[in-house]
Amino acid sequence: MNNVRAKPIVGIDSETELVRQGVLAPPLVCVSTCLDDNRSGRRTRLTHWSEAKPQVAELLGQAASGRIILLGHRIAYDMAVFIAMWSDLIPLVIAAYDADGIADTRIRERLLDIAEGKLAKTGEKYSLAALSKAYLDIALDKGADSWQLRYAELRHLPIDQWPEAAQIYPQQDAAVLPGIYDQQELRSMEIETAGGFDSDLFVDQFRQTRKAFALHVMACRGLEVDIPRAQDLMIRLTCEQEMRAQELKACGLLGAKGAVSSARTREILRSAGDPFADDSEREVTETGQLSTRADILLASGDPNLRKLVEYRRNTKRRTTYLEPLIHWGSRGSLLPNVETLVETGRTSMPGGWVGCYSPERKRGKGFSLQTMPRDGGIRDCFVPRYGYEFAAADYSVAEMRSLGQAMLSLLGRSPLADFFRADPRGDCHIALAAQFLGISLDEAKSRKKAGDQAIKDARQNAKAPNFGFPGGMGVTRFVANEAKKFHESGGSQGKLWRFDEANIARNGFIARWGMQPYFDFIAGLVDDWDGGTIKQIYSDRYRARCGYSDACNGFFQSLTADGAGLALWNIAKACLVGELRGCAMVLFTHDDNVLEVPKGAGKEALAVLERIMIDSMQTVTPDVPAAVDGEIKMNLAKGG
Is residue 533 a contact partner of residue 560, using CB atoms and an 8 Å limit? Predict the structure, then answer.
């Protein structure tokens, strides 16, 4: 397989001291490499950290000039360790990434699995040991007795004084990388042939590898917690809970030990009247019992059931969010776990913070920073470091704009694209509200400007159809999803939709944005048995076994994700070597970015951030203008 390579491959791996809370780029101990150059076979080398800089610089220079591909597994970690150790190598690292000179076997494997429609939910499948065994039948020793977690012991010893096993371990990791690369190439060809694909399955690998580096640098910075504020919130919630518990005990909804009485809850619900009496699917559980789902309790109108919902909600705020936030935030920065690539092209933060593990399991490992609640005070607890402020910017209705681009690219026409091209800052929610009310857009705008409450309510109600129906969602699922959102926000977000009302909204959405040809096109791509395969518009990334909703969502979600990913890389570069030097990325949540910037420099930094985000998205959606909304703030809450 070596003879098909355009460039020599150099496998590279670093061993470091242990990752711990607040430290995701720990001190380097050694660097192992394996050169596979098509001529002289594979040669491994192990270098002590004190002598490794010239070698690393030489390899980065070769990768930046297009002479080699530097190959690793989770290579963003190695690159972050190198630049933390030797900051003068940052320009070389950036240049190597920009030259498509750095590749990652883990990202390559995920691209292949997405193309076959079998991306694994567990990260274990994508470990270096798993790939080595699967492709090469070589078992790497990663057990508790291996040297994997012990290299800090050796950092100040010359390599010739290391135990033999400690010398062999890192060289084995580097040695298997070229072989895995070759086998992935073979597998790619097999998938392309079997699927009739017309482009390279690895065409997107270097963009994803750059995105992975940007995300890892962000994670290395992490977020700070305002512990006094979090403690104050905990005290307030605890007091509220104690008062509410007494009220709930008095009416029999809570027992003496604080357990919720399901029987009493159903008794009160029946006496209050069942708001969903005509919909058995929503009122009855699998066991045939009357459902006590929070949205049903809220809709009953009973004040005690409403108190019960708020009691449950505050319990979750305390145990899921505040307890780990205070426990771990008082011990250092919170560094998110980040997954670079999922099927949609998006990133994910599966939960847990790096280095935050409590063996006694009394406290959680942390929550996903991408999905933490927008209300309730949790976001207020994340603050910039002393002497800094946040510059935050998010794309304005990014996926609606990407949907317009997708329809243009696939069908050649899109009323949605036309809407944004006519007015780059156009409000698609007021436009749909006007459709619902049967009035012109100009009248809707005029009434909104005059403070008309009916228009304000209609615009708010238009958001759910605009965000929910593009993915081919049916009315039943739409109603259920909105009910869940309503309950999880304690009634502060969204509303409870009737089925007839939701059906009218769906039809209005389809009519206003000309969606039927898009839905028909998607229906022709997929079947009921094994779904369908889609090729993403910008990245040429393949995704197999897509159901109808997956495919509907897939085209525009991937465009947004790819534009946001490109922005991530460009922001990272600007922070490391460009206009934003001195600033640092601290959070990315699908379509918004948060920077820590020196206090007083926020306005200028925000202007640069907004420009980078717009230019990057415009590369991916060239026919539909992008728009960004930014603000300077002192916590992560909207307007904070």
Answer: no
Query: Which residues pair with residue 225 across a beta bridge?
Result: 382
- Please say whether the beta carbons of 487 and 494 come within 8 A: no
Predicted confidence (pLDDT) per residue in 234-293, tens digit: 999 999 999 998 999 888 888 877 888 888 888 888 787 655 444 444 455 556 677 777
Written in H, E and C, the secondary structure of 42-99 is EEEEEEEHHHCHHHHHHHHHHHHCCCCEEEECCHHHHHHHHHHHCHHHHHHHHHHHHC
What does the alpha-carbon distance between residue 268 and residue 392 come to, in Å, rounded to a whole number? 46
Residue 530, both tokens: 């094994």
Contact between 123 and 129 (Cβ < 8 Å): no
DSSP string, 152-179: GGGTTS-GGGS-HHHHHHHHHHHHHHHH
Q: How far apart are CA 14 and CA 306, in angstroms?
A: 55
Residue 317 has a pLDDT of 87
Alpha carbons 38 and 68: distance in angstroms, whole number:
12
Report how far apart, in Å, the C-alpha atoms of 361 and of each of 357, 358, 364, 366, 367 are: 8, 5, 7, 12, 14
Place of tokens 């670093």: 14
CA angle 94, 96, 97 (to 5 degrees): 65
Query: Which of 211, 522, 521 lies closest to 345, judged by CA?
Result: 211
> Cβ(73)–Cβ(131) under 8 Å?
yes
Say which amino acid occupies 380. Answer: D
Q: Which two tokens stand for residue 193?
A: 């042939």
Both tokens assigned to 363 = 């406290």
pLDDT at 362 over 50: no
Q: What separation in angstroms does the CA of 386 have from each of 163, 229, 596, 597, 634?
A: 45, 15, 10, 11, 11
The proportion of the chain whose per-residue pLDDT surpasses 90, expressed as a percent, equals 67
Nearest to 562 by CA among 622, 627, 619, 625: 619
Nearest to 613 by CA among 582, 572, 581, 557: 572
E strands, 283-419, where? Answer: 382-383, 388-395
Instruction: Please tell me the total number of residues recorded for the chain in this structure.
Output: 640
- Residue 371's pLDDT band, with cuts at 50, 70 and 90, is confident
pLDDT number for residue 289: 74
Count the Cβ atoms, other than its own, within 10 Å of residue 339: 15
Please name which of 46, 34, 210, 40 lies closest in space to residue 136, comparing C-alpha atoms. Answer: 34
Nearest to 188 by CA among 4, 320, 356, 39: 4
Average pLDDT score, the chain? 90
- Contact 70/60 with Cβ under 8 angstroms? yes
pLDDT the model gives residue 350: 82
Question: For residues 387 and 369, what is the distance between their CA atoms, to the nearest angstrom?
Answer: 23
Q: What is the DSSP string of 424-437?
A: TT--HHHHHHHHHH
